[in-house]
Fold this protein.
Amino acid sequence: MIKIKNLTFTKDGKKIINNLNLEIKKNNVSVIVGSNGSGKSTLAYLLMGLQGYEDYQGDIIYRGKSLKKMSVFKRASLGITLAWQEPVRFEGLTVKKYLENSGNKVNQKEIEIALEKVGLKPENYLERFVDSSLSGGERKKIELASIYLMKPKLVILDEPDSGIDIDSLKYINKIIKEFKSNGSSVILITHNLSALRQGDVFFLMCKGNLLKINSLKEIKSYFRKKCVNCQLKSNFDIQLKK
Amino acid sequence: MNDEKRILKLAEINKQDGSAKIVISGNDILSEESDDGIILKTFKKNGSVFVNLEIPQGVKFSKPIHICLGALYGKIKQRINFTVVFNKYSKASIFSHCLLVSENEITHNSNYKIKLEQGAECFYFEKHIHNNSGNLTFNPSIKVEVGKDALFKSYFELLKGRAGNSHLNYDLLCAERGVVKMESRFKTSGEDFISLTESVALKGKNSRALLKSRVAAKEKSSIEIYNNVKAIGDYSKGHIDCQEILLNKGRVKAYPCIEVLNPKSKITHEASLGGIDNKKMETLMARGNSSKKAEEIILEGLLSEYRPN
Ligand SMILES: Nc1ncnc2c1ncn2[C@@H]1O[C@H](COP(=O)(O)OP(=O)(O)OP(=O)(O)O)[C@@H](O)[C@H]1O
Ligand SMILES: [Mg+2]
């Protein structure tokens, strides 16, 4: 579905993504873990083609086509979307209106279903504003509802579980399952061990590169032992140590 | 349809709602009615319309007082003078509907004097519907005296039609524990020009002011906002929250002038001038909206019409 070839990205003189290769198959949940600042969000922005992230070396191929120079809107039209780690707030825009504009011809019933899927009661939220009056967790749930309505083919979820209470994690896990059963692929960036269970393939991000990990068990141990306060220069050091 | 009916229709007012209603077309008073409690006097002098309104002491009206100002046809020079007195502990809302829809040259000059005595509460809502030619000049000048423990809350909206050449001038004086909350939302297009000046003197101890504006300048239009807040009284507090967006070749300017004359007082100021925030645009675009659609959605929210909570 998507193939990343020798991707290198430098910002303000700092190499953030370093010759990264990755292939993501259809109908698949790829989990990316890695310490703070390792480049996970940057990879997400590069995939979505955000402003300031258009200029990279290497290539990103989506269904056989290079995404180079393709706008965010164009990428979204091809079915790619991103849930930001910190979703933005919109003054004066109601949840209803916001969700109406998430994907094609969304009707009221579908909006209500989407809100229920993320554990929010429609009657309590439809008329509220997507502004700073929502809590961080509520805002993230609405973002997920918005993505759900879009019926995307490739979903990049940047820490959808951060700031979400333990009881609500089940909604996120369910939605990810549903994406998969509808034939979508998910790139799930997370620090949450429970979300890892959703994964089909696992990657460890370290200093701008990805290391493929074979099993859930393995990534758990990498995650716990090696990636906290990591002293390594790159993921190749991990391979050498291994 | 006669002029009065047309004005009421434009203002979306039903016969029953309102505790008082004044309908003015050009410089003619078409009708006036008021509840027993409201003291209303209208007259014409030297071609100008005068309206005196008084809310008796301690009386609280739940239904609004509607003032409808129409400039419906032809070339019009409208001159209006309002004097409004809220006696002690009275409360009322005034909805001013400015329907400057004649496509010909409109000049509107108005003078408002609003006095709030101790503990009075006034909600002043001004909604504009303008013509599409932009051939209009709108010069209101509003002076408000906010007494001890009184509250003046206003909401100005110009979202339908062109702004033409508009100069809005507010001048407020706030006594002890008096509160001022003002919000303005407007947009300009074509070669429109709006300047909004809000000057507040926080004279009384513990007086407060909040000035909020949300505006957008499109095409070749321009907007200038002057917020002048002066903190004089002990513990007086002011806050300015100004967001100006420009699109195409629009121009926006902000001139905050804050002055604190008392070490126990504080004024804060936040302003953001620029295009639409990129992350907002990209979020909506990542959901499949074109940049044009995303822009519309964001502006519609930011410049949404007033809805009573
Ligand atoms: N404009 C910039 N200039 C310099 N460095 C930057 C810039 N933007 C991001 N970085 C750096 O790039 C690195 C990767 O950031 P990124 O946000 O992708 O990390 P992350 O893996 O998502 O971290 P987290 O787990 O905290 O979300 C960080 O070290 C960050 O400081
Ligand atoms: Mg991140």
Summary: The pocket of magnesium ion (ligand 2) is lined by residues A 40-41, 85, 158 (CB under 6 Å). Chain B is about 10% helix and 55% strand. The radius of gyration of chain B is 20 Å. Residues 226 and 255 of chain B are 5 Å apart (CA to CA).
